[in-house]
Design a protein that fits this description.
Elements: E1 2-8, E2 11-16, E3 26-35, H1 38-46, E4 48-49, E5 52-53, E6 64-71, E7 83-86, E8 89-90, H2 96-99, E9 110-111, E10 124-128, E11 132-134, H3 141-144, H4 147-159, E12 167-171, H5 175-186, E13 191-195, H6 199-208, E14 212-214, H7 216-226, E15 232-237, H8 244-251, E16 252-260, H9 273-278, E17 282-285, H10 293-302, H11 304-307, E18 311-316, H12 320-328, E19 336-340
Parallel strand pairs: 12-13, 12-15, 13-14, 15-16, 16-17, 18-19
Antiparallel strand pairs: 1-2, 3-6, 3-10, 3-19, 4-5, 6-7, 7-11, 8-9
Helix pairs in contact: 4-5, 4-10, 7-8
């Protein structure tokens, strides 16, 4: 089995690794497509994801789809050749957080693509059968990779209690920001502002459902103008830049909400405590998703035209270095980059 290993910041190698047959209750999946995520780019460019340092060599990739190639004992209801989206998180199901329904903060979580837990930039993976979500025959493997980031977007909206007809700003129109805009569209919110420095991403944001796409330097002023000085009901920071969280506080109304979906490059970030206190803002920290994958797949199935513009680039795993160069440097109008093992 071939896999792509990150061996240093900015450097991959291809390696051959053995893989066992699937155990009881497991399936072995032939990986067909994997989306490149923002956290993958942090690991690739910075040598860490937030405060979690890389441990080399490591296999990234956690937005996968594929086909069942082998079936372990005790598995029923699935067949060889079944196609599906693959859930990268392995939960213990017995800690206090799992028992209270907060599986995404499981005390014993194993997230495939973190240090010590190989991700999906490899040809085959063994998974518990519960981590396989079947997809319809007319859904491409590429679109199915969007289920993981779309599930995160849906989780952020559930966490922040987004309601129909509310006004929402999304900072960052990379893949997770675009998925958030699509999710907001499904929630029937009133107006969506996308805040993004790159023109091609502003255009993607408009194509997927944003009502306005603004440059960061004028965004706060324009949103206050558009809302008669009130601000939006909720701002979702998908960029996690040096100033984006403070911007989120500034463009949100009094007693509003701010959801932090993006991952900051450093453990400590700027946070305007005065604005946050004076407005009595509620701040929600988003940790991946919590069983929203099936809802995400249903949204992908129901509205394929919303998501077609997001997948812009594809590279085979042999060219994974090129894929990461393009994605990390925002080259060639890239939206979502897909790697095919």
């Amino acid at each position: 089995m071939k896999e792509a290993e990150l061996i240093a910041p900015g450097s991959f190698r291809l390696a051959e690794m053995p893989i066992d047959d699937p155990g009881p209750g497991e399936i072995q999946v032939q990986v067909s497509a994997v989306g490149v995520c923002g956290s993958d780019l942090h690991a690739y460019s910075e040598g860490s994801v937030g405060s979690t340092p890389n441990v080399y060599p490591m296999v990234l990739g956690h937005e996968p789809s594929g086909t069942i190639a082998k079936i372990g004992s005790g598995v029923t209801g699935l067949s060889l050749g079944d196609r599906g989206a693959l859930e990268p998180a392995l939960y213990c199901y017995h800690c206090e957080f799992c028992l209270s329904g907060h599986h995404n903060v499981c005390a014993n979580i194993r997230f495939l693509s973190n240090p010590s837990y190989a991700g999906f930039f490899r040809e085959r993976v063994n998974l518990p059968v519960s981590n396989f979500a079947p997809i319809p025959g007319n859904m491409s493997f590429e679109v199915a990779t969007l289920a993981e980031p779309l599930a995160i977007a849906l989780h952020s909206l559930h966490l922040a209690s987004i309601k129909a007809d509310e006004h929402v700003a999304v900072i960052g129109a990379g893949p997770i920001g675009l998925m958030t805009i699509a999710a907001l569209r499904a929630f029937n919110v009133g107006r969506i502002w996308a805040v993004e420095p790159l023109q091609h991403r502003r255009e993607l944001a408009l194509s997927i459902g944003a009502h306005a796409a603004l440059e960061p330097k004028t965004a706060v002023k324009e949103i206050h103008r558009d809302t008669n000085g009130r601000g939006v009901d909720c701002t979702i920071d998908c960029a996690a830049g040096e100033r984006t969280t403070d911007q989120a506080l500034e463009m949100t109304r009094n007693a509003g909400r701010v959801a932090l979906t993006g991952i900051h490059a450093t453990p400590s970030v700027s946070l305007d405590g005065s604005t946050m206190r004076r407005k009595e803002l509620a701040i929600y920290n988003v940790r991946r998703s919590n069983h929203e994958t099936h809802d995400a797949l249903e949204l992908l199935r129901a509205h394929p035209d919303w998501f077609a513009p997001v997948v812009t680039h594809r590279r085979q795993m042999d060219c994974i270095g090129d894929a990461f160069t393009i994605a990390s440097q925002y080259l060639d109008g890239v939206g979502k980059m897909i790697v095919t093992p």
